[in-house]
Design a protein that fits this description.
about 130 residues; about 30% strand; globular; 5 strands; five-stranded mixed beta sheet; alpha/beta
């Protein structure tokens, strides 16, 4: 089981790969913990990481091999990796492949759009 601890809902491809989103109330709490409106102190970063890891641990079944999909501010992710590992949850990062798609427009012009397709997970190196 891979719990989604990012601010974004899991894509259909990620869900098919085993990612689960938190229920709405816990997702709101997660987003609040991931959001900083002012320059955070080291203590605030550590406290947020620990709170997120505990939130994940409370939501996961007691047994099994658990992973957490994380992503966000780099200065928070290293602390979050450590906090998750302390809860025996392996942190992973989503890997996406960028595909360039050209879309013909009504005026004859061509619009180029990048589409990101989920292609797997990268295990955090500390795990």
């Amino acid at each position: 089981m891979i719990i989604n601890l990012t601010q974004h809902p899991a894509t259909p491809e990620q869900i098919a790969a085993g990612v689960i989103d938190l229920p709405a109330d816990l997702r709101a709490k997660l987003c609040a913990l991931l959001t900083f409106d002012a320059l955070p102190t080291r203590t605030e970063i550590e406290d947020a990481a620990e709170a997120i890891a505990l939130l994940a641990d409370d939501h996961l079944p007691e047994d099994g091999d658990h992973q957490a999909m994380i992503g966000g501010a780099p200065w928070l992710m290293s602390e979050l990796e450590e906090a998750l590992l302390a809860q025996r949850i392996s942190p992973v990062y989503a890997f996406s492949r960028r595909e360039s798609v050209e879309q013909a427009q009504a005026d004859g012009s061509v619009r180029k759009v990048n589409v990101f397709r989920h292609a797997g997970f990268v295990q955090a190196f500390k795990a």
